[in-house]
Structures are given as structure tokens and as C-alpha cells.
């Protein structure tokens, strides 16, 4: 007897008990769908964050106040105990660092921009003219603020695309006067759309020179200092220079972070999270497999007589074994395919809420795991069936 | 036993070819440490084209002998040769293949697959002998036509009467063109008319040249065969040719019409 024949017999048996077959498959369907959905969320978040960070450009070092690596508070999270950076600290690095192509201070805050009767709330990103070279933020129309405007704390702003859309739905904003936190600014540029990142849009943003921002908020603090290293092989050497320069001022209360470190840290974190999610979902797949074994054992004892008849008319051990294994594998593989469809569909549906990414490896893994579950948990019942003595099986009531 | 051996020894002088030869077969079961001799040094020849009844009360070893003849079981000692092939030492899988090729079973309880059409039931032995597709369906259809069920191909076994189910079972026994059709109490679960109908079919098949072995406890049923082998306590106690063999066809003609019989059958149940 060939495979096609075993397959047909198995299909007929499954079709004879449709409700039971479906309920048995449900365990696998849920398991596979859960694996695919959770892994897609995990890797979606991971790649979204990774691409945001990679967008910051290479060879960048970020200097934060506070000791991040020691675990005592995050960047700027020192709760006021940590000494903050000022423009003086940025200037020190700019003057003394060897091998850095630029040093840019960066400040942030929340602002409200107004034009005529329209209002837009946004994040403030403030820096000096070097920020252009970081490369994340790109001009749509207009120009970046110049060095002279940074030095003179000129009241110029660049508007992120979402802010532009809110304030200037129909008109060209370039050259217009907007009010930011009650003060008047001239619009010199609009920015390209970046798109929704994880945890809020990156387009509801207002850019201005850091000196202007300090005047606006009445603070001399800056949140971080961005250093671009000229050659990537010098990153560690530049980092050592920064540490040496800042040690007298801040002791250990500052952190130098490379983009690579940020990526690998986040990558590790999110990777672990993804594997954990997949593992939890995998447990339900195993439970589904036990469900298959259970129902196959019931099926074998229910069909003892059938097995006896088949053996009497010439079925060999292998024929019975393959019939029942195929039945179990059909349950798990069909369940797996439905689970993949549901998992992928769910991932697509969730895309508006959470970045999801259905990875081929999670689909392959879930599918082969489901098939393996069928073989593994189907093997014992099938073996029992194949070893039945035809005389005993025929007498079975 | 001595008588049996003499009989056996005399049989080859009939000149007809033996389809199946059981020689000096014993079967010993061990049940909870107690050994039971189900068959003791039994020898039997079944000739090509013959219709033989194996008769005996329950516990006589009749079922054990049927299992050995049907290649469902192996003897403890002795030899079973079917169509010149020694089946005594074959593995379960080899026995399965030999059963498929050589033996057609008709059981008392019909033993059809439930929720399966008559045609698919009849195809079953062909599935395991590797016949596929339209050829398989054609052979099965012809077998069903042969037992008068050409118009019931797609019916499930649950939609057929007992007599019809047994006829499906007979068709299933025929499809691989076996050396022996082995019928174990084929009328045991049937009303009298259906029983006679089934016997008529078996006699008809035998007349067409098929070897039939009938296992029964019922002397009246046994007398439809040409020869009766009587068994008791695991030994052959008598072996005789039937004088005045019964013809199921004649009995059927003498019976009331099928409509009345059907009504009777229903009320009897």
C-alpha cells in the first residue's frame, strides 16, 4: 500500500469525526497562532527600535549625565541628584577631542506651537548646526539653522511634518511667523515625514537652535552631547578621551554610549523577550500535542475492530502504523496551517497598534514543530494499533 | 486420531490437488501458567474446488483450527502448507500478505467497516494488495454484482440488511481471487431466509470452482458441504463425505415469498 492510500484512509477517518477532529486541531491552532503572533510582535518591536537607532547614523557616541551602566538611574533620570551638562561641557569636548568630526549638544522639552487660530503640541529638539550631520532628520523644504543663528539665539524654527500639517494645512509655512510657548518664531524649514515610531510619532516635533531653546525654557541644561567620530575604528579611543575629560567634572556620574552598544543592549533585551514569548506560546503547542495523543488513543481503542478487519484482509504492521501516524500528522499540520493563517492575520490586524513583523523563521519553526508534535504524539497510539493481534482485535466488542 | 490419520492418508488417492495441507499441527496456549492443548497433532487436507465443513461444539478447537487455516495464527508444532508454500514460520507481516493473497474471510459478525460504502468495503483487500484506481473499483463492482448487490454499491453497511451485509462480506472475500474462502458461522447472525440465501451464494461460488471452508457448530448448515470434518477436544473425530448434500437453492425455492419472509424476519426480531 502506498502513501496516497494511507493518506486517503486517514482523511476519511478524520472526516467521519469532524467535530472531534476540529476540537483536537484547536489545541495546535491556538499554539501555532500564539507562537507566530507573539514572535511577530517581538521582532516587529525589535526591528522598529533598531531602525530608529540605526537612523541616527553610524560612528555616533552619546554622552549622558548620570551613571547608566552602574544601574543608578537612566540618562537624565538621576532625579536631580546628578549634575547636568551645560553648553560649556559641550564646548570642552569640541575644543579638546581629537578625531571627532563634530560635537553637538542636544536639549529636549515639550512645546506648544500656534499659528493664527491653530495649535499643535510637539516635542522640542534643540541642538546646534551640526545636528544636520547626524542624518536622522531631513529637510523637506527650506534650510537648516546656521551657525550664526545658533550663536545669536535667533528665533527660527523648523517644523516636523505633523506639526506642519496641523498649523499650515493649505499654506506654505516658510517665512511665516508662528508662536512657540508664547514667543514669536520665524519658520525656516519643514521636515520630511519620518513615520510613527514605537511610543509616539517622530513627526510632532519642533526644531530650533539650542541657545534659543535655553532662552525659551530659561534653563542652561542640555540633555546629552552627541559626538561623531571621524573614523569608526577610533570610537573606543574617542570614548576614552571623553571619559578622561569629564572625569574631573563629573566623577563617575556620566555615561558614554555608542550606537553599537545601544543596539546590542536593546537587541539582547528584545531578543530575550521574543524567545520568552515564543517559549510560552510553545507550551500551548505541546499541550495541543498531548490532546492529539489523547484523541488518537481513544480512536485506536474505538477502532480496534476496524484494525482487526484490516489486518485480516492483509494490512501489514506498516500499513496500520502509517495510517494512524498520517492521521495524527494531518491533524497537527492542518492545525498548524490554520494557526499560521490566524497568527499572520492577527499580526497584520495588530499592525496599527503595535509594530509586528511575521518572520519566516517563526512560521517555519511553528509549522515544523506542529508536524513534529503530530509525529511524536501520534507515534505511540499508532504503534499500539499496529501491534494489535488480529484475532484479539476481531473479537473486540 | 488414528482414524483421522487413516482418512488423511487415504485422501491423496482422490488425485485432486491439495490447496491447503495441515500436517501434525498442535497448538498450545498458556493461560496463567496452565497449558491448554487447543489442537493435538491434527492433519487435514483441503482439495482444490472442494466445499468442506469443519464442525464441532464450542471449545472443540474449531476456532483455533480456523485461525491456523486462515493464517491468522501460527501452530506451536506442525506444518501448514498453502498452495505449496509453507506458512508455519512466517512473520506476522508475511502472514498478512499471504492472507491477502490466499484467504477470503466471511465472518459471523460480517465485520464490515462502518460508515464506509459497500464498494469501499469490497475494495479493502485490493487496497492492501496494491491494486489502485479504476481497476480496483471495477473488480469490486464485479464482485458485488456476483453476489447480487450491483445496485447497492454506494450504500453504507448500516443501510443494508444482515443478509446484504454478509453478501458484501462474501464479495470482499472474492476480490483477490483467493485459494480458499473461509466462512466462520456465516449464517450465525442471520434470519433463516437470509442464512439460506448466503448458503446458496456460497454453494454457487463453489460450483463455479471456488474452494470453500465452512466452520460451523450447526449440522444442518454443515450438510451444505461435500465433506464434513468433525472436531472435538482438539482432534478430528470423524471425517465423512456428505450423503444427500443440501441444496440451499432448492430450500430457497420451497420457502415463502421474500415479502412474507421479510415481514416474518422483522417480527422475529
Overview of the structural elements:
The complex is a heterodimer of chains A (397) and B (269). Chain A has 13 helices and 14 strands. With 397 residues, chain A is an alpha+beta fold. Chain B is an alpha/beta fold and 269 residues long. A six-stranded mixed sheet of chain B has the order 6-7-8-3-9-10, with helices on both faces. In chain B, strand 7 (180-184), helix 7 (192-207) and strand 8 (211-216) form a beta-alpha-beta unit. At the A-B interface, helix 1, helix 10, helix 11 and helix 13 of A face helix 3 and helix 4 of B.
Q: What labels describe this entry?
A:
heterodimer; A: 397 residues; alpha+beta; 6-stranded mixed barrel; two-stranded antiparallel ribbon; 19% strand; B: 269 residues; alpha/beta; 6-stranded mixed β-sheet; 4-stranded antiparallel β-sheet; 10 helices
Blueprint (SSEs and pairs):
The complex is a heterodimer of chains A (about 400) and B (about 270).
Chain A: H1 3-16, H2 18-54, E1 60-65, E2 85-86, H3 87-96, E3 100-115, E4 118-127, H4 131-134, E5 139-142, H5 147-151, E6 156-159, H6 161-167, E7 177-180, E8 183-191, E9 196-197, E10 200-201, E11 205-209, H7 210-217, E12 221-222, E13 224-229, H8 235-250, E14 254-258, H9 259-302, H10 304-312, H11 317-350, H12 360-386, H13 390-395
Parallel strand pairs in A: 4-11, 6-8
Antiparallel strand pairs in A: 1-13, 1-14, 2-12, 3-4, 3-7, 3-13, 5-8, 6-11, 7-8, 9-10
Helix pairs in contact in A: 1-11, 2-9, 2-11, 2-12, 9-11, 9-12, 11-12
Chain B: H1 2-10, E1 18-31, E2 34-47, E3 51-55, H2 62-69, E4 77-82, E5 85-86, H3 92-102, E6 103-106, H4 118-129, H5 133-146, H6 162-174, E7 180-184, H7 192-207, E8 211-216, H8 219-222, E9 227-232, E10 235-241, H9 248-254, H10 258-268
Parallel strand pairs in B: 3-8, 3-9, 6-7, 7-8
Antiparallel strand pairs in B: 1-2, 1-4, 4-5, 9-10
Helix pairs in contact in B: 4-5, 4-6, 5-6, 6-7, 7-9
Amino acid at each position: 500500500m502506498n502513501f496516497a492510500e494511507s493518506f486517503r484512509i486517514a482523511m476519511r477517518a478524520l472526516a467521519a469525526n469532524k467535530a472531534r477532529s476540529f476540537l483536537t486541531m484547536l489545541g495546535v491552532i491556538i499554539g501555532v497562532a500564539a507562537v507566530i503572533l507573539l514572535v511577530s510582535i517581538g521582532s516587529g518591536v525589535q526591528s522598529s527600535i533598531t531602525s530608529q537607532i540605526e537612523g541616527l547614523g553610524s560612528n555616533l557616541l552619546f554622552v549622558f549625565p548620570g551613571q547608566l551602566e552602574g544601574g543608578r538611574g537612566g540618562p537624565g533620570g538621576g532625579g536631580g541628584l546628578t549634575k547636568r551638562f551645560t553648553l560649556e561641557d559641550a564646548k570642552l569636548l569640541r575644543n579638546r577631542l581629537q578625531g571627532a568630526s563634530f560635537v553637538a549638544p542636544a536639549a529636549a522639552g515639550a512645546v506648544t506651537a500656534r499659528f493664527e487660530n491653530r495649535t499643535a503640541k510637539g516635542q522640542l529638539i534643540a541642538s546646534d548646526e551640526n545636528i544636520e550631520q547626524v542624518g536622522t532628520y531631513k529637510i523637506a523644504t527650506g534650510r537648516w539653522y546656521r551657525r550664526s543663528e545658533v550663536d545669536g539665539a535667533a528665533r527660527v524654527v523648523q517644523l516636523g511634518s505633523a506639526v506642519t500639517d496641523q498649523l499650515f494645512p493649505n499654506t506654505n509655512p516658510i517665512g511665516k511667523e508662528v508662536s512657540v510657548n508664547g514667543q514669536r518664531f520665524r519658520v525656516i524649514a519643514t521636515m520630511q515625514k519620518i513615520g510613527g515610531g514605537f511610543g509616539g510619532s517622530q513627526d510632532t516635533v519642533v526644531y530650533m537652535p539650542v541657545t534659543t531653546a535655553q532662552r525659551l525654557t530659561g534653563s542652561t541644561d542640555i540633555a546629552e552631547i552627541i559626538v561623531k567620530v571621524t573614523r569608526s575604528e577610533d570610537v573606543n579611543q574617542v570614548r576614552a578621551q571623553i571619559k578622561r575629560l569629564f572625569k574631573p567634572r563629573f566623577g563617575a556620574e556620566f555615561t558614554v554610549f555608542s550606537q553599537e552598544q545601544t543596539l546590542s543592549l536593546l537587541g539582547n533585551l528584545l531578543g530575550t523577550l521574543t524567545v520568552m514569548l515564543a517559549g510560552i506560546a510553545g507550551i500551548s503547542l505541546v499541550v495541543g500535542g498531548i490532546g492529539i495523543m489523547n484523541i488518537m488513543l481513544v480512536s485506536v481503542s474505538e477502532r480496534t475492530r476496524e484494525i482487526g478487519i484490516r489486518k485480516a484482509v492483509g494490512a501489514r504492521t506498516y500499513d496500520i502504523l502509517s495510517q494512524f501516524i498520517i492521521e495524527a500528522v494531518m491533524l497537527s499540520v492542518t492545525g498548524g496551517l490554520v494557526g499560521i493563517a490566524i497568527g499572520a492575520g492577527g499580526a497584520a490586524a495588530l499592525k496599527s497598534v503595535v509594530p509586528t513583523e511575521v518572520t519566516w523563521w517563526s512560521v517555519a519553526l511553528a509549522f515544523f514543530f506542529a508536524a513534529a508534535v503530530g509525529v511524536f504524539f501520534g507515534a505511540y497510539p499508532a504503534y499500539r494499533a499496529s501491534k494489535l493481534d488480529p484475532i484479539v482485535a476481531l473479537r473486540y466488542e | 486420531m488414528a482414524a483421522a490419520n487413516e482418512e488423511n492418508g487415504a485422501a491423496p488417492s482422490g488425485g485432486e490437488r491439495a490447496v491447503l495441507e495441515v500436517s501434525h499441527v498442535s497448538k498450545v496456549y498458556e493461560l496463567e501458567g496452565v497449558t491448554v492443548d487447543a489442537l493435538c497433532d491434527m492433519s487435514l487436507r483441503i482439495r482444490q474446488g472442494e466445499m468442506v465443513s469443519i464442525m464441532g461444539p464450542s471449545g472443540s478447537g474449531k476456532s483455533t483450527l480456523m485461525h491456523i487455516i486462515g493464517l491468522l495464527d501460527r501452530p506451536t508444532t506442525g506444518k501448514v502448507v498453502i498452495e505449496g508454500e509453507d506458512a508455519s514460520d512466517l512473520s506476522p507481516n508475511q502472514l498478512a500478505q499471504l492472507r491477502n493473497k490466499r484467504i477470503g474471510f466471511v465472518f459471523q459478525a460480517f465485520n464490515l467497516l462502518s460508515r464506509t460504502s459497500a464498494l469501499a468495503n469490497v475494495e479493502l483487500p485490493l487496497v492492501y494488495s496494491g491494486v489502485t484506481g479504476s481497476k480496483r473499483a471495477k473488480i469490486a463492482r464485479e464482485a458485488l454484482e456476483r453476489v447480487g448487490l450491483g445496485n447497492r454499491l454506494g450504500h453504507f453497511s448500516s443501510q443494508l440488511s444482515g443478509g446484504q451485509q454478509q453478501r458484501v462480506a462474501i464479495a470482499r472475500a472474492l476480490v483477490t481471487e483467493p485459494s480458499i474462502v473461509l466462512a466462520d458461522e456465516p449464517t450465525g447472525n442471520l434470519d433463516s431466509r437470509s442464512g439460506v440465501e448466503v448458503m446458496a451464494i456460497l454453494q454457487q461460488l463453489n460450483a463455479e470452482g471456488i474452494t470453500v471452508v465452512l466452520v460451523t457448530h450447526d449440522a444442518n448448515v454443515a450438510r451444505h458441504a461435500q465433506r464434513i470434518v468433525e472436531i472435538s477436544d482438539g482432534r478430528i473425530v470423524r471425517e465423512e463425505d456428505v450423503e444427500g448434500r443440501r441444496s440451499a437453492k432448492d430450500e430457497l425455492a420451497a420457502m415463502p415469498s421474500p415479502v412474507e419472509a421479510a415481514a416474518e424476519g422483522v417480527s422475529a426480531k
